[in-house]
Amino acid sequence: MPERKFTVKPSLTTRGLSPENQETPLEYLQTDAMNNYQFFRRNHFDYPSLNQANYRLLFGGLIKRPLSLSLQDLSRFPAKTLKVALECAGNKRGHFEPKTYGEQWGKGAISQGYWRGVPLAHILDLTGFSSHAAEVVVKGYDHGVRKGSEKNETYARSLPLEKALHLDTIIAFEYNGQPLSYKHGYPLRLIVPGWYAMASVKWVRQISVIGTSFKGAFQTNDYMYYPSQETDEGAFPVTELNVNSTIQTPLDMEVLDGSRHCIRGIAWTGKGMITRVEISLDNGESWLDADFHPPASSYEWVSWQYVWNPGKSGEYSILSRATDSIGRTQVRKAFWNRKGYGYNAMDHVRVFVY
Amino acid sequence: MPERKFTVKPSLTTRGLSPENQETPLEYLQTDAMNNYQFFRRNHFDYPSLNQANYRLLFGGLIKRPLSLSLQDLSRFPAKTLKVALECAGNKRGHFEPKTYGEQWGKGAISQGYWRGVPLAHILDLTGFSSHAAEVVVKGYDHGVRKGSEKNETYARSLPLEKALHLDTIIAFEYNGQPLSYKHGYPLRLIVPGWYAMASVKWVRQISVIGTSFKGAFQTNDYMYYPSQETDEGAFPVTELNVNSTIQTPLDMEVLDGSRHCIRGIAWTGKGMITRVEISLDNGESWLDADFHPPASSYEWVSWQYVWNPGKSGEYSILSRATDSIGRTQVRKAFWNRKGYGYNAMDHVRVFVY
Question: Quick check: A73 contacting B, CB < 8 Å?
């Protein structure tokens, strides 16, 4: 007789396989660090091949002392551990109206856990850099033909010097106390807390200081907000996370009994801290405060809840709205942009109580 | 160093966990039999516990010779193997406009493979039945509180005598040559080819012949088409599969290069055979025949394809439309019904060619 197995667990939701793009199911978005296999996967290209045995991280450009570090060299620098939520700039793209092209991400292109690494500032302190330095370009091993282009390109992103030198911008080598997995950037991944995750370059190959504004395709073509359908007018770069919240339970269009329910979710922001999460049970007419514990750091999300006794049967339109310490708050309709980045309208689910 | 793993495979898409409802990703909908782990999971209740060692299938009601069969007893009857696609009645519910309550299934609440079992007719031939027999009720081991109700109910469905006695209505004990898995009804599952999968009762406990029309909740409350939002007027039962088709590639809102692409998908029907699958590349203005091999049986889907050279860049609205041998064809807008069953509008994806 076959073994009796009743295990019920959620799976990553596939948005694409070549390259691999799979999102985290809502059940896994928890207060604690998420397991590696629960973490959303977002790739621009196929997984790269890299020579692990001879791996060295190269530093170049406008630095005073060129440097090449083995993993062992890197381990001699002082390291720090940060709990950071990474959110894909396209998270919730599928919610835009009108629709925008690209992976139709739901609410699960976000995950969090503990990243341990060396502040980039420590290494740039050692190399020194020219007074003409303006940006730091971080290049990965992943490459291929970018969608919308004909040529072979390598994934690369730059940071303004100030962000690159922020002591929480780290070159990470561990996730939750283990070496990074290949799928999440082994051996080294840049972690840029507070920015959308396109900045957190995986499989880091080379770091260069430049004196100009970097013009890579993933910075000047993709990961730009284009407010117009027709032209590129008014375009500006995707950088910091918007203030945002997600309702995990109940699910959209769920049927519920009339008993007590816990409305539950997460809220996060790229700057400052989450200071308030509100729930509306009447489609925005009135608002109620949800409960949450203040986060230990501003780079992780808060898990909030609101205990609800529906009372009478019927349809309910439930909204969530987060506010952060710099006064940003979610609005009803997301800022539409042609490539579908940074969706942060109030979350919205409809339920029927019988 | 960690082991190097670049395996990329799709996951089931979670729609709910309690009870477990997960759908098959489009990549797994293939011409061949699908593996057990690729098969969509649709449950009304938590997985049941059942006494495997003393398992017996009971026959009762208006039969002449009451019967109780062990699995070994059942294995002495002549068995047959059928390739059957099972489709949840709620497949594509998430596509209805306006939305309907319930699991928001995408296009993956359908799967197919080889089911082996004993025709129910053989057993009813042995028991005999009264001339007053009208329906055959099949009851599973799964039970619990049904959504929209307060009381504990057991999953049960009836078939009209004619369908119950059809030689392809089988009590299945194997899937793809292996004993059924627990999640898909071990040890015995009724398989009703041509009907939506709510008729294919899992974990079969008892089969009864009755002289009336069965009034179980999964037959008179759920699995009814309610054409009106407000009243139950005009309601009629969900039975046979509608003619239908699904585009697997490209994905909705995908960005494609201008090279040759294979538009690919499946088509199926509950009565007769698929005789034609057409593609429109201009949102329904003109239609082109897709290629497919005639299926070996009318219970499996056909896999179709159309090779497309987009030629010029821009937006394309792609439709698929299947027609069956009894003259049914897909229309542009699905028949809306309050509980969201039987969605079978033409499938529709939009792509951008650069």
Answer: no
The C-alpha of A203 sits at a distance from chain B's nearest C-alpha, in angstroms, of: 13
Indicate the SS3 state at residue A28: helix
Measured distance CA(B168)–CA(B83) in Å, rounded: 11
- Per-residue pLDDT tens over the stretch A11-27: 999 999 989 999 999 99
- B41-67 pLDDT, tens digit per residue, is 999 999 998 877 889 999 999 999 999
A-facing residues of B in 127-146 (CB < 8 A) are 145
3-state SS, residue B74? helix
Task: State whether B14 and A27 contact (CB < 8 Å).
Answer: yes
Kindly report, residue by residue over B73-110, the tens digit of the pLDDT.
Answer: 999 999 999 999 999 999 999 999 999 999 999 999 99
DSSP per residue over B212-237, as a string? S----HHHHTSSEE---SS--TT-EE
Q: What residue segments make up the domains of chain B, in order of their start?
A: 13-222, 244-353
Smallest CA-to-CA distance from B124 within B191, B61, B198, B188 is with B61
> Tokens 């039945």 label which residue?
B129
Do the beta carbons of residue B204 and residue B190 sit within 8 Å? yes
A334: buried, middle or exposed (CB in 10 Å: 19+, 13-18, 0-12)? buried
CATH topology for B13-222 is Sulfite Oxidase; Chain A, domain 2 (3.90.420)
Q: How far is CA A250 from CA A277, A290, A308, B279, B311, in A?
A: 16, 15, 11, 38, 46
Q: Does B104 touch chain A (CB under 8 A)?
A: yes
User: What pLDDT, on the 0 to 100 scale, is given for residue B5?
Assistant: 55
Radius of gyration (C-alpha) of chain A in whole angstroms:
21
Give the C-alpha distances (Å, rounded to integers) separating A236 from A153, A217, A337, B133: 22, 14, 11, 73
Q: What is the pLDDT of residues A267-293, one digit of tens each?
A: 999 999 999 999 999 999 999 999 999
CATH, range A244-353: 2.60.40.650
- Has residue A6 got a pLDDT over 80? no
Say yes or no for a CB contact (<8 Å) between A10 and B14. yes
Residue A250, chain B, CB below 8 Å: the answer is no
Q: Does residue B20 sit at the A interface (CB-CB below 8 Å)?
A: yes
State whether A13 and B14 contact (CB < 8 Å).
yes
CATH topology of domain A13-237: Sulfite Oxidase; Chain A, domain 2 (3.90.420)
Q: Is B255 part of the contact surface with chain A (CB cutoff 8 Å)? A: yes
Shortest distance, CA B49 to any CA of chain A (angstroms): 10
Interface of A with B in 288-347 (CB under 8 A): none
Residue type, A337: N
**Hunting for tokens 């033409």 — which residue is that?**
B346
The Cα–Cα gap between A312 and A256 comes to 12
pLDDT digits (tens, 9 = 90+) for A121-172: 999 999 999 999 999 999 999 999 988 788 899 999 999 999 999 999 999 9
Using a 10 angstrom Cβ sphere, with 0-12 exposed, 13-18 middle and 19 or more buried, the burial of residue A197 is: buried
- pLDDT tens-digit map of B270-283: 999 999 999 999 99
A229 vs B: CB within 8 A:
no
Q: What are the Cα distances from residue A191, in Å, to A77, A116, A195, A300, B15?
A: 16, 9, 9, 13, 32
Please, are residues A198 and A89 in contact by the beta-carbon 8 Å criterion? yes
ipTM of the modeled complex:
0.91
B-chain CB neighbours of A254 within 8 Å are 101
